[in-house]
Amino acid sequence: MGSAAPIAGDVVLTARNVAKSYGNIDALKGVNFDIRAGRVTTLFGENGAGKSTLMKILSGVIRPTSGAIELRGEPVVFSSSSDARDRGISIIHQELSLAPNLSVRDNIFMGREIGGPAGIDFAEEARQAAALMAELEEHIDPMTPVEELRLGQQQIIEIARALSVDSRILIMDEPTSALSASEVEVLFKVIRDLTARGVAIVYISHHLEEALEITDYAVVLRDGAMTAKADRADIDLDWIVRNMVGEGYDLGAPPTGYPFGAVALSVRGVSVADKAGHGAMAVDNVSLDVRAGEIVCIYGLMGAGRTELLECVFGKGSKVSGEVWLEGREISRLGIAERIAGGLALVPEDRQRDGLVQTMSVGENLSLASIAAFVKGLLLSRPAERRVVDDSIRAVTVKTSGPAAAIGSLSGGNQQKVVIGKMLGTHPRVIMLDEPSRGIDIGAKAEVFRILAERARAGLAVVFSTSEVSECLSIAHRVVVMSRGRISAEFGHDVTKEQIMAASGEAVAA
Amino acid sequence: MTQASPSLDRSRAGAVGSGFDIGRVLLEGRAYFALVAIVAVFSALSPYYLSVSNFLTMSSHVALFGILAIGMLLVILNGGIDLSVGSTLGLSGVIAGALMQGVPFGPLGVVAYPPVWAVAVLCCGLGAAIGLVNGVLVARFKVPAFVATLGVMYMVRGVALLMTNGLTYNNLGGQPALGNTGFDWLGFNRIAGVPIGIVVMVVIAVIGSVVLTRTPFGRWLYASGGNERAAELSGVPVKAVQVSVYMMSGVCAAVAGLILSSQLTSAGPTAGTTYELTAIAAVVIGGAALTGGRGTVRGTLLGAFVIGFLSDGLVIIGISSYWQTVFTGAVIVLAVLLNAVQYRGRAKRPATAAGPTPSPRPAA
Q1: Among the residues of A297-441, which ranges form H helices?
Q2: Chain A residues touching residue B289 (CB < 8 angstroms)
Q3: Is the dihedral of CA A83, A87, A92, A93 positive or negative?
């Protein structure tokens, strides 16, 4: 290590009283923030707290309205993100920014291709890409097109790209949202390697427990202002949540005091072929019964087959074998519309891609799945639609200025509630939610779970999938663990985190 | 969190407030203002422009493109494109011409002369069939709409040329003795002084508008054009919607073909060449997004009128048709630019009133 390398713990980048306003709205209200060499500084805060705004300022994507940034004690103004990158600051954005048609190698070196005597030195690029893959312990051929990788692997490529720059300050905005537990572990190992080399890391994550594991310093933002900061040794999960939300939080408990009804959904020996088509099974002979009023949580890592199972039950994607029964009626051959009419509903995993129509208003999105309910003769009845929409907005407590608001004007949590409200509006007997908490903050998450528990009490059968153990331990009566397409274990609500983790395949792999 | 989440964007719209309103009105009503400007300018330049008879003449020119454009709008709302409408228009006219000459039944030596209404129905059926081919190629076989309809465009044009050997049917009048007169009704008659072509366009526009805004099908179309996957998972029959829009577009093209050949009293195999591009231009000028999910019948009609009144106006004041082409192109480019401005603005700044909650928090 060169003599110029800063001593671990030294402040390398400082935000002094940084504020950012959009119109008369203050996204950041004068934040002081230090980033230290060789340390992981974690930024906690709910959606809208100002985390991403602050990170965009520190990485040169946007400029602060007021305040100053100091790089190793010198005031700096970044003209662009590439300017910041040239000064050793790089960022892994929350959204993936890969070209799906290009190979892993081409993506990693996109925009900074290594020149050779005859154009690009592809061999050198491939060598470095392979080395990065080895460092991240992924068995990915650098020549694989990115579109053939699953989401978690794509995120790994994004991380590899940031690592390939060799920066002194690395900002990671939700780098693990699509990673499995083992991939997260590898990432953490890489982060520790980097910090040992003196690289300063800024880490943002919604997975609080996971983030705590890697944190050296914790900083909490709320409403654009810093509410707390502390050393890792002095804090715990409660401290973070208290400072983030300003109050205690609770994901709820299984609703009790009522008997379950008859079996509402019965999945019998369902198998689904792997999309990548390696002859493998994404879902392998899964059977599952869910009774009316029961809440079942399907826990599994990325790639365990949760999404494929739920989509197949809903009639999307190709089933290989098996039957699906809804309230004593076989629905295996019905189309999606008929399954919805029969009382089945699915809230998909990726709400932007599969849940919302971005060109339509909040109201039109909410009523999309239950159009039949407000058709009079041949025409739609506006008053009847308005009633359906108002009921839904009230039922799932969407915070919006009204049904005519653009769907993009809502926060992530409220968008998710719109998707849930849309499907609840079809008056389902069984609702399946694929990672309903993905990308929404704790408050919204607790509210979603509260709504589901309420509906279950009224006789709705609820199936939700998750990759966060803490969510299994909330409202579910029963926890089903999936691993490599199979159900590996089933537990009651008194299950422990360790039991779930052990059954999820991590233990098998170890 | 129990706080409302009213985005920064919306509050910002409130903040910028009235200063932007004029700009927004001009932006959103741009096709309308463009039309008013065109009428005003040409009325000033030519004494003949501003008269009822000239407006009716220009409108019947517009009607042809208006009908094509409404069909095109449905396809574009779905996120597709239909390049085959010009050829379908041509073939529809040719088939009508052939039917008017009589259909010989080979060995029997009998020649059937279908009445005009039957000719019209058969031509519309032909348009629907061509649309069905487009729709099945796109929806079932996943051929990109541009390529599928490009291929069909060539094939249909080729069939029209083969059928006529490149020649034109000139005798569309029919004979009273054969009971097949009246083909000229579409092109020359008037209802309350209004040419039939305009009436047909208005009827199609009203039907299209009601279908889009007031029926489940319209909602399905906007939804599947905006996000096909989300629509499918909400139970929308996306495939059926996709096939239907191409069929409707084909029928619109066939109707336009009947009107054109009636107006010209002849049916040529090359009629309607490049009309598909004018129809697309009208839809775009009318504010529809080529990515699907956004657009209205009203906007599309305005777009058709802007193009029609502009080019007819240029003719009336005696500007060369080469310049017309340049002007039309410039209007299209301008329209697309403004579309981009509008939709970018909408994405950042939803056009809704400020939320009811007093403490908006920006999305980080």
Answers
A1: 306-314, 336-342, 362-367, 382-395, 412-424
A2: 359
A3: negative
3-state secondary structure of A462: strand
Q: How do residues A385-435 score in pLDDT, each as one tens digit?
A: 999 999 999 989 888 888 998 888 787 788 999 999 999 999 999 999 998
d(C-alpha A363, C-alpha A366), whole Å:
5
Q: Which domains does chain A have, with CATH numbers?
A: 11-245 (3.40.50.300), 352-426 (no CATH)
How far apart are the CA of B287 and the nearest CA of chain A, in angstroms?
14
What's the pTM? 0.79
Place of tokens 């009827």: B203
- Diameter of chain A measured on Cα atoms: 81
Q: Measure CB to CB from residue B229 to each of A354, A368, A408 and give the nearest one.
A: A354
Can you name the residues that pair with A21 across neighbouring β-strands?
Answer: A26
Considering only the beta carbons, identify the residue of B1, B227, B353 that sits closest to A443: B1
Q: Determine the 3-state secondary structure of B66 from DSSP.
A: helix
For A490, the token pair is: 């089933």
Residue pair A224/A170 in contact (Cβ under 8 Å)? The answer is no
**Token code pair at residue A381:** 């009845």
* Per-residue CA distances from B29 to A186, B23, B212, B345 (Å): 56, 10, 20, 15
| Contacting residues for A426 by C-beta, under 8 A, at least 6 apart | A340, A341, A343, A345, A369, A370, B235
> Which of B234, B239, B296, B359 to probe by mutation at the A interface, max A CB count within 10 Å?
B234
For residue B2, list chain A residues with Cβ-Cβ distance below 8 A.
443
Total number of residues shown for chain B: 364
Q: Which H or E element spans position A95?
A: none
Q: CB contacts < 8 Å between A and B, how many? A: 166
**Which of A54, A368, A401 lies nearest to residue B10, judging by beta carbons?**
A401
CA–CA dist B346, B349 (Å, integer): 5
Q: Which residue has the tokens 């300050």?
A: A169
Contact A337 B215 (CB under 8 A): no
Q: Which of A406, A357, A360, A351 is nearest to B10 (CA)?
A: A406
Least Cα distance to B81 among B343, B331, B276 occurs for: B276
Tell me how far apart the alpha carbons of residues A12 and A195 are, in angstroms, rounded to a whole number: 13
Produce one character per residue of A182-197: b if its CB has 16 or more CB atoms within 10 Å, e if not: bbbebbbebbeebbee
d(CA A10, CA A283): 50
Locate A444 and state its tokens.
């919204």
**Residue-wise pLDDT tens digits, B271-330:** 999 999 999 999 999 989 889 999 999 999 999 999 999 989 999 998 888 888 898 889
* Nearest chain B alpha carbon to A356: B230
Fold of B31-348: ABC transporter involved in vitamin B12 uptake, BtuC (1.10.3470)
Task: Give buried/exposed letters for B15-45 (b at 16+ CB in 10 A, else e).
Answer: beeeeeeeeeeebbebbbebbeebbeebeee
Alpha-carbon distance of A300 to A488, in angstroms, equals 10
Taking alpha carbons only, the member of A216, A220, A221, A209 closest to residue A231 is: A216
* Domain spans, chain B: 31-348
Residue type, A133: M
pLDDT tens figures, B193-252: 899 999 999 999 999 999 999 999 999 999 999 999 999 999 999 999 999 999 999 999
Contacts of A56 (CB under 8 A, 6+ apart): A62
